[in-house]
């Protein structure tokens, strides 16, 4: 089924684990005689932003969380696109109005970068 229609994986941060996870897709496609590039890939991504006024702790594990400024998150989204991901589902670490606004800003920055690349 996966190699015939679609494929997804979750919950990642930076796309460092994506090649390892895509290996299963590529093997399934090979068994079906299908080009893996023809399968739409969806990835669930965990996103978090530093809390204003919070004490700086150790940075989160980058393979589990997109973290930082709106620009940092936009850059992470861009790296997924560069690896052929068709859709990204973002899960906010804290779903607050401020976090939603920051994610919207990251998406705006990502889309502006895409428009400039065209």
Structure, described:
This protein has helices at 18-32, 70-82, 97-117, and strands at 6-12, 40-48, 66-67, 87-92. The protein is an alpha/beta fold and 118 residues long. The protein has one domain. Strands 1, 2, 3 and 4 form a four-stranded parallel sheet that branches. Helix 2 (70-82) packs across helix 3 (97-117). The chain is elongated, with a radius of gyration of 16 Å.
Q: Which overall shape is indicated by the principal axes computed on the Cα atoms?
A: elongated
What is the averaged pLDDT score?
A: 86
**Care to count the β-strands?**
4
User: What structural class results from the helix and strand content?
Assistant: alpha/beta
Question: Rounded to an integer, what's the Rg over CA atoms?
Answer: 16 Å
Give unreliable regions as ranges: none
Helix count from the secondary structure assignment: 3
| Distance linking N and C termini | 34 Å
Helix content class = 40-55%
Secondary-structure element series? EHEEHEH
Number of domains: 1
Q: Tell me about the biggest sheet?
A: 4 strands, parallel
User: β content, as a range?
Assistant: 15-25%
């Amino acid at each position: 089924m996966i190699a015939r229609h679609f494929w997804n994986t979750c919950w990642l941060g930076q796309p460092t684990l994506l090649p390892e996870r895509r290996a299963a897709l590529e093997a399934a496609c090979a068994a079906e005689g299908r080009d893996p590039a023809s399968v739409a890939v969806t990835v669930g991504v965990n996103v978090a932003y530093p809390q204003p006024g919070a004490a700086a702790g150790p940075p989160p594990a980058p393979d589990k969380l997109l973290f930082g400024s709106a620009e940092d998150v936009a850059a992470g989204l861009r790296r997924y696109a560069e690896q052929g991901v068709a859709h990204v589902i973002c899960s906010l670490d804290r779903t607050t109005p401020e976090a939603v606004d920051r994610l919207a800003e990251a998406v705006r920055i990502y889309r502006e970068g895409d428009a400039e690349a065209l």
